[in-house]
Inverse folding.
């Protein structure tokens, strides 16, 4: 591969990485400037434009990367969960661990999805939609394999994803000793949503 293309890809990744690191400190994306991000990445401000048109494009790339990584985590849980282990608990724990590891981006996405004037609202909502769609497909497949009727799988998936992200963000502000309690509560909520969807499958 062309060394120049390799360096360009590495610099682009560095811009994403330093921005995510800044968000993890509690910074809000809208307070960060192009010049600041470029300095953190160790490049000249003019070099920023070789990778992104502006800060908005950088933010969109962050959300897209975040979404791909989270979908990969969810898929990995479904593929490697051990027999007899609660898939729901494994899924909840994996999502919470992901949010904890990328808390700055996770906060940003939830915040932007709720802001009517945010340039990232559509992308943030699109991420939630992609995760919900993937989960709804899995719920339908799982119910079919178990021979259990399932009503409104997409609504059930939407409710699960919304609950997981909002409660996951709340977990970031909770003491470490309360983590297991939050996971237990989230597992119960997901099971309640699933059981409700199953009960509506007969109607």
């Amino acid at each position: 591969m062309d060394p120049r293309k390799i360096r360009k890809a590495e610099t682009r990744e560095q811009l994403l990485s330093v921005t995510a690191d800044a968000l993890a400190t509690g910074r809000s994306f809208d307070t960060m400037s192009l010049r600041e991000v470029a300095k953190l990445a160790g490049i000249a401000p003019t070099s920023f434009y070789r990778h992104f048109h502006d800060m908005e494009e950088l933010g969109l790339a962050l959300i897209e990367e975040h979404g791909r990584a989270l979908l990969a985590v969810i898929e990995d849980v479904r593929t490697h969960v051990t027999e007899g282990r609660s898939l729901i608990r494994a899924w909840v724990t994996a999502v919470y661990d992901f949010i904890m590891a990328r808390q700055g981006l996770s906060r940003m996405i939830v915040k932007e999805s709720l802001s009517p004037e945010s340039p990232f609202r559509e992308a943030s909502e699109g991420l939630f939609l992609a995760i919900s769609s993937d989960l709804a497909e899995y719920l339908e497949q799982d119910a079919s394999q178990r021979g259990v009727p399932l009503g409104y799988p997409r609504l059930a998936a939407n409710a699960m994803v919304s609950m997981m992200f909002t409660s996951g963000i709340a977990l970031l502000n909770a003491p470490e000793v309360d983590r297991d309690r939050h996971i237990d509560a989230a597992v119960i909520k997901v099971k309640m949503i699933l059981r409700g969807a199953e009960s509506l499958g007969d109607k």
Notes: The longest helix spans residues 55-80. The chain has two domains: 1-52, 59-200. The mean pLDDT is 87.
